[in-house]
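[Automated response] Your request has been received and processed.

Submitted sequence:
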Amino acid sequence: MDVTIGSQLDSCKPVNSNIGCPAQNGSSSIQDSHSPAAVSSDATLGRHLARRLVEIGVKDVFSVPGDFNLTLLDHLIAEPELNNIGCCNELNAGYAADGYARSRGVGACVVTFTVGGLSVINAIAGAYSENLPVICIVGGPNTNDYGTNRILHHTIGLPDFSQELRCFQTVTCYQAVVNNLEDAHEQIDRAISTALKESKPVYISISCNLPAIPHPTFVREPIPFSLSPRLSNKMGLEVAADAAAAFLNKAVKPVIVGGPKLRVAKACEAFVELANACGYPIAVMPSAKGLVPEHHPHFIGTYWGAVSTAFCAEIVESADAYLFAGPIFNDYSSVGYSLLLKKEKAIIVQPDRVVIASGPAFGCVLMKDFLQALAKRLNRNTTAYENYQRIFIPDGVPLKCDPQEPLRVNILFQHIQKLLSSNTAVIAETGDSWFNCQKLKLPEGCGYQFQMQYGSIGWSVGATLGYAQSVPDKRVIACIGDGSFQVTAQDVSTMLRCGQKSIIFLINNGGYTIEVEIHDGPYNVIKNWNYTGLVDAIHNGEGNCWTKKVRCEEELTEAIETATSEKKDCLCFLEVIVHKDDTSKELLEWGSRVSAANSRPPNPQ
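Generated structure:
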């Protein structure tokens, strides 16, 4: 985000000379002749937090009410520019904040103490893995209960209230426990600014008896945030750019590959600037799809080892030099550690570090600055792209279906491809949709999101809710497997309450297909639901919703036509019934390699 965020310590000073706070436990407060009543009634912790969220770009918060956060929610919804979206469960509220942050740059969710916090924590862990600044706000115990031996409800029955905090410490970059008003302003501002600086989730616990109390530090118009921008070491930047340019300029057929950390580094435009300058072919890692424009004339597809876009891996792995900008090489993105890459040929550019081949390494060099500096130093070299053009053969076309033939997945995605435009966005659920959606060609301006690092099944339902809420001018197309949908189905109801118009393709193949291809067993078969019947029951005549079961191409064509014409302003839910063994060829290959990686025997002791 371009807005400047951070806390000004001067804003913590009271607007008058009060040096006390409202009385607690019957004790009197210390004050001068000015009465605390002079403090505006809306100068409260709750309203301050609401205004800060609006200031950083959050217009919607995703919540589940509980007795510890009810007063806080009162004050959040009192902010005219902040919309509260009640979710069916905390996990989906967290997933929705994740989806929202992918578009807006920051998201927020509000839950209650421990039972809510430990429920949302899986979604927060996913946001942490994807470098998303999500503000996780928890309504905490009354301030009078801290430091006592009291046992509270919503806990595990011990007088220690730190269990939730300790759980969040490993999946957030900052934790604030606000149980007094004197430093609440500072703690809240520091948490929010840290989330934006680090692009990671933060945890804010606010005692349930504090949000409504006026206090001098919460003036009606808070001093704007002002984050100090991160800067590159100028000398290190120059040396790194010179060394990288020398390395690449002596190569015969270099390539560049974009990775998922382009987003956190805010370097997508700089990457395109580099591509325009150098003439190299450009590819993306699977988790970076959507971050690099696929209409770029030198775009060659997704580099994913053995399951790459056709002819992409051959060009990347045969190059004599490759620059990876923001990569994550895990077992999934490396197809079971089977990539044919050599360290001595690679330049690895991370958000604040550059490593050239087996050395040297340059720290305190920001990716955006480095790519822009490098673009000015590279000689134009189109050799690798010319090689790609020589070997490239256009994609084959799936065999046509016979009349009323059971629908095939490749036919389904052929039709989904035709739906895409600058006014759409794709959400791909963990599973075979990873591979089928990866093959979609994104028009300019078409959004694309999926969660590859964490890979939590069910993520897409909440993420679709949050993402669609953040981009009301786009129509979200979600591709969700039946097994994943069963985990988080409830919040289709929240989509209806919000008047969203997404198209959900529920791919019903009777089980966890991605798990089948890694390691099959009876546990991968699930109970079949009447999915359209379920969504009709959730709809219950309230809101705009249209459902349809699809078994053949003729029915699919008709359903898509209806969804994009007379039902274009409805939430459209299409249950697509396909054979249980109908998978992409990429999943078959990927699954066998990941299985081999998982089943490696222990090293000899």
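Summary generated for your ticket: The chain is about 35% helix and 15% strand. The first strand starts at residue 60 and ends at 63.
If you did not submit this request, please reply to this message.
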